[in-house]
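Standup notes
- DV: blocked on the single-chain target, sequence here:
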Amino acid sequence: NDGAANLFLYDAHTHAVRQLTHETTWDVRNAGAYDHTIVYETGGLLKSIDVSNGQVTPITLHLAVQSIQARPQWKDAARSITAAKLSPTGKRVLITARGDVFSVPVKDGSTRNLTATSGIRESDALWSKDGLRVAYLSDEGGAQALLVRDATGLEKPVHHALGKMGYFTLLDWSPDSHRIVFQDNHLHIYAIDLASNAVTLLDTSPRRLEFKESFSPDGQWLAYTVVAANNFTQVKLHSFATGTSSDLTEKFVQTDNPLFSNNGLLYFTASIDAGPSRVGLDMSTQERPLRSGIYAAVLATDGHSPLQPKTGDEESKASKDKDADKSDAAKDKADDVKVDKEGEAGKGGKGDKDKAEKAKVEKAADKAPKPTRIDLAGLSNRFVPIPVPERDYEHVLVASDGALLYLSRRQPGVETDPPGPARRANGELHRFNFDDRTEKLLRSGLQDFSGSRDGKKLLLVESENKFEVADAGEKLDDKPVDISGLRTMVDVRQEWHQIFDDVWRMEQQYFYDPNMHGLKWADIRARYEPLLPFVQRREDLNELLAEMIGEMQVGHNRIAGGDVYVAPTVGTGLLGADYRVENNQYRIQKIYRGDRWNPFLVAPLGVPGIDVAEGDAILAINGRPLDGAMNIFSLLEGTVEKQVSLTVSRDGTTKSARTVVVIPVANEGALRQWAWVERNREYVDRKSGGKVAYVYLPDTGDDGFKFFNRMFFAQMDRDGLIVDDRRNSGGQAANYVLETLNRKYLSSWKDRDGLVFSTPGAAIYGPKAMLIDQDAGSGGDFLPYGFKRLGLGKLIGTRTWGGLIGISVNPPLIDGGSLSVPFFRVFTPEGEWHVENEGVAPDMEVPLDPLAVNAGNDPQLDAAIADVLEQLKTAKQIPLKSAPPMPTQVGK
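- DV (later): unblocked, structure below
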């Protein structure tokens, strides 16, 4: 009330409600009562109120607090790496981390912090072609600008304004050094002319993407991607000379990953089966493979295929000229080697070596590439497929010897890796040699890779903090990049202010409604910013920011993490069991045996050969006696994934004691969840006499997809169905589940000997119900919304959470913290905003009684069983389970 959350008093005798506080600016957040006095907190201040007379008195506190977190201090920036680029010849790596730009040596030299600015966020650092300059974004002053400076960080940077509207990302620096291309979060791609500071809008993508781009060798053309209205990625070509853009291909094929080469070719990937995998929001894209081929576009009409037939005939003049070009390239390489040796010759002369290195760089920079000629007419008829398998390709690159390098991902649905960080490092690096036209696998287990501008070196990314540099040859003689020097002095209070600014600006730039639902966002900042000086910990900053963005009153608007204090922890091993104390002994009341068909869900006490049963007493753990007065978990500290000896006894006596060796786990939540699911399934099966199927979806992402497929299709022979959406944590829009549940009966088929079968074969056509509750949200909101809209059955339980504005595409915060800004919202076919902040209401409201649950009962599940069984009494049999009489005439 009064524009803020206030305290109210309820009189138990008269049942009257009276407002006690009248705060209008800040919510009453915490309150404590003693006698007739209530002390409460509002806007960071404490106040007291006398309940008898309503008098409010401010409480003045003087706390001399020395905040350790707020001190200026050295920080390990390697924990917050956001970008890494190899220098033009592969001698250094330009790393953006913790809002600073670092130049890290591969071999010689020391790590340099080129910016070293607290309270300013630098990002997206790029090398110039000659490696003598770097470009990056800076948000100094509250708006991002482009800064260009020397690669040693000794000179003052040159400032280039980009505009105040938009959150920008640098993409690439042209080989002629004239321009830099960048994108904003509003789907635009731009180029800035570094001489005139003119910013040109090159194109706008109809749908959201991260642009991929490649400059032609002369810098006069740009190949880039957009996402068309049909959701297919399309490669386009922009001519800086004419200011026009053209499509590389028609929109019936997905094209991606463009890359110009130095020999008149544009490499790209193309797919004709991309459609089912394109809309990431749809659950139907789960485990849909994307198979692409690699192609080369011959840009000029008089150009040549990179796969010309080898005839064995005498060479023509053109071929000899080509060989001459190769000879020149070899000579250049020999000159480079000569320069290297000259630098090494003066063993004590570092100046000679630096001079030779500079001469080498200048020589490479002065070699002007031939003008790139692109004949757009008939270009689509000059595409050459590279003879490699169709895969999910990323990051095509041309090595200095002309070989093609590319990263592929393993196709989904074929295999499943164990949980852990290795799941993300599933890239395979291949090399295609045009001379013998063979493909070679160079490395597996990569997250990403990139190359130096000269095509001689590769930067391999194995994990977020593990980089290696290797030659781009037949063998990867890789060397690790030492990032231990990524340390920076941070004035924490300045950084906290930058984070505050960044959060406010990201909300302004990324929120789906540019008018912020009518909220005066500048006024909100003016309210909360004065509280910043009182922040003492990074956790406090998160709390302040959560309050600020909470003013928007929408779901999925979250902030978390960052450089918060994390105390050293010792993992406590868990045995996957419930215990009871009986006669001063711990006895195993229940053993959770997990899912025997899930190889990644292991139950410590469910392993064959371990002689432990429910009812056994645990007398000791690792030889340390255990009795009922102790906390059993104190003896399991530090035992996660380690062998532990349990002394157990059936009758509780030491005479019958035996020792078993088990391996505790860190988390037994999945064990308990699966036990709950199986108990529900067996209960429904028993109560319905085998007529009703039960399917649970823990989310609408990977696990929900797996749970649904596993449980639904195995029970497709049932007459009715209960879908359990309770505690569904969301993910994608579960169109796949809804489409499967909504399958219509088309026909049945008679096999001479087997059972009758139908089309669609995998369907349950009878009565259905869905269980929902207040803990089902996001995709867990959309699933019952769709279930209700399609008229599939009743929703039973309680109203869902109500959160269907999602999900963030904004970058992380400077210190690794996360902010989720909602950027798209659902509306109905009638053009109405629904579900957000209202949830999906049940058709039959059934609260989940805690007393009943503790007694082992589930009133909501019982209500669903009763509803489906009642419908089955009058439901028509679908599909038909027996065929009509056989034809008695020939030809019938």
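- Follow-up: The first helix runs from residue 317 to 345.
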